[in-house]
Amino acid sequence: MPGRLKKFDEFFQRKAAEGGNVVAMARMGSAMRERGELAEAESWFRKAAMGGDRVSMTSLAHLLAERGAQEEAERWYHEAALAGEPHGMLNLARAYERQGKRDEAQHWYGEAARTGDLPSIAALGHLLREQGRGEEAESWLRQAAEAGTTSAMIDLGIVLRDRGQAAEAARWWRSAAQAGDLAATCQLGRQAERLGRPGDAESWYRQGATGGNSEAIVRLGLLLHRRGDLEEAESWYLDAAERGDPAAMTNLGVLARNRGDEGEAAAWYRKAAEHGSVPALTNLGHLAEHREDFAEAEEWFRRAARTGDVQGMLSLARMLRSRGAAHEAEQWLARAETVQDDREHHV
């Protein structure tokens, strides 16, 4: 009987939707999406969105984004945001943040946060923290953290740590870890390393690594690498590299070079560079320099330097000086010094 009632309900729902009822259109869209009939779901959400249903605007945008129609998805997120739909605001803000438009992102995160939407509150706090605006970030992050948002707990802990409140920071990170957010184990492990407690750091990293957190896997590998447990370190690096982690690939290259296999080292560095690792570019330069291919070495150092990498700039400057291009070398040295100064002022 329940199955027959469901069929009757869908029949009348469809009739109402076909008759122009916007609420019925939205419900048909949801039903088709749950059934996996995404083309029909998109059609109903589009009709409901064009009829003014703001939740359908966001639902339509989600489907468009999932099938790669990003530009149209963003247009509908914008429509939903203007209509006051919090998830539309949130996703529009995320799109702006991906594009580097931080002012626009902050505006829409703020609008969504003021509706009480927890993911938006956490995202606004995160953005403010990244901009170095810890005091503004804290109130938003604390609100989301106290409501149980683990990402906000981690960000709040970072704000508190930077202010010197390490004990409270650790309490928030432990809460996040206990709630299952393994990214918190990396913060706890790093804090333990700073305090000179490598055993505690290893314990936290192992918890995150065994749970599959890529950063924890790499940090555990680094800790083992530094103390000479190279076989286990390599095993963890391989695990992270298989997950696409560029730092792990770079570190596998370092291990290969240290045991004298420059061919394997170059292969790992190239793979890491393809995945966005800047240190891998510099390391490829060092390999080329070692085999006296100075033109190739300079090109790798230049690629690293153009990303703003200090080691790449310094290595490039050294090579330029060696071939008599002193003026350009001094320019790169000056840029490296500026970057280092900026970093020191943001510690």
From TrEMBL:
Domain of life, per UniProt, equals: Bacteria
Identify the InterPro entries for this entry: Sel1-like, Sel1_AlgK, TPR-4, TPR-like_helical_dom_sf, TPR_rpt
Pfam families associated with the record: Sel1, TPR_10, TPR_16, TPR_4
GO molecular function term, any single one? identical protein binding
Please report the organism this UniProt entry assigns to the protein: Amycolatopsis eburnea
What is this protein's name? Sel1 repeat family protein
